[in-house]
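One such given next:

>
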Amino acid sequence: MKHGDETRVTVRDVAARTGLSIATISRVLNGRANVAAHTRERVLAAMGELGQKAPRRRGERATGIYVRCPYVLTDYFGLIVSAVAEALEPHGLQVILNAGVAAQREHVLTTLTGRRDVTGAVLILPPEPGAELARLRDRGFPFVVLDPRTPPPRNLAAVSAAHFAGARQLTAHLVELGHRRIGIIGGPRDWLASENRFAGYLSPLADARVLPAPELIRFVAEPTTELGYRAAVELLDLPDRPTALVAFNDKMAIGALRAAAERGLRVPDDLSVAGFDDIELGQACRPMLTTVRQPLEEMGRMAVHLLLRMLGGHRLDALHLELATELVVRESTGLAKA
């Protein structure tokens, strides 16, 4: 029998593989006592050979949690996935990982409800539209979205960092240092985190009665070091360049450091640069990067906590949790030149 793109194996198939009757296979699956030990082992061995597509024994609980992270598992995503796996392990649950950029082209959500090895899912920055997530929710499949890429539908469990608050705190730090002409290198325009951080960047400038100059704002298609570098080049080559740059993440900020160095600008004496995330690379560069720390491991653990409550039949009091960020001031930001 077909289910989605997979062929499901029936009791009849197990019987054909073992040479036993369908009635005998059914007695094994139903846990009946009137089956010889060697016969039971023969059936279970055949089921093991058939893998996840074989029929499940009565009372057998699925232990797989589908973790979808369709991106390269760098220090950012790698930390989140590791935290999820470590939080699941004490509960006897195993990670079934779907990762890598190529996974973005896979249409996997529609198959999850039919998988016998999967009991729930953690979806990390899912590229699927909200309508598709809502359909999965409406089918009664338990899952949690970790770091939503787009605004999550109502009644959908989600965990993220406080992007707006973190970005606001970062720009307020620069404003306190006397910076008013601040260049913003935002992330992808269609990412919820990018939208919230951009609003957070603008808020302290508004408080200081500074209107954002359109020529000081750039957005990138992907938050990479190279695209951060290119955006910084455009901003630093302006006739009236910014005195500070804030980047969507640390990798882009490191690209901005490279652009500054190529132009003979000293950081932070001539230019302040700040990032977001607080990945290890930001402490390995010189100067060390001022940034906003995202609670990545805590986010992973909280996503698992919510999922476990859902699997236990508990109602969630809060459906979208934002975990606090922290401003980390290091060497890359300083007083604005008069």
In short: The mean pLDDT is 89.
